[in-house]
Design brief:
72 residues; alpha+beta; 4 helices; 3 strands; globular
Length: 72
């Protein structure tokens, strides 16, 4: 799984920015979890300096930490 995630992250542009294609509610529904769980995970990653989130736009700040399963 780590290798797959790494390959996906490498496909992002140089600046590691992307836009979420769905709302957090839709992501939660798709994953079968509560909306609050998605919000908490994104906020935790932002507090840890892994991502910077502005609305639906996300920038991966620390790619090494983003690939670590321990951050969620």
């Amino acid at each position: 799984m780590h290798d797959l995630t790494k390959r996906c992250c490498e496909s992002f542009s140089e600046d590691r920015r992307f836009s979420l294609p769905m709302s957090q509610y839709d992501i939660a529904s798709y994953l079968g979890v509560r909306h609050e769980s998605v919000c908490r995970a994104l906020k935790k990653m932002q507090r840890q300096g892994v991502i910077q989130k502005k609305s639906k736009n996300i920038e991966i700040i620390n790619i090494d930490n983003a690939l670590s399963p321990l951050h969620l």
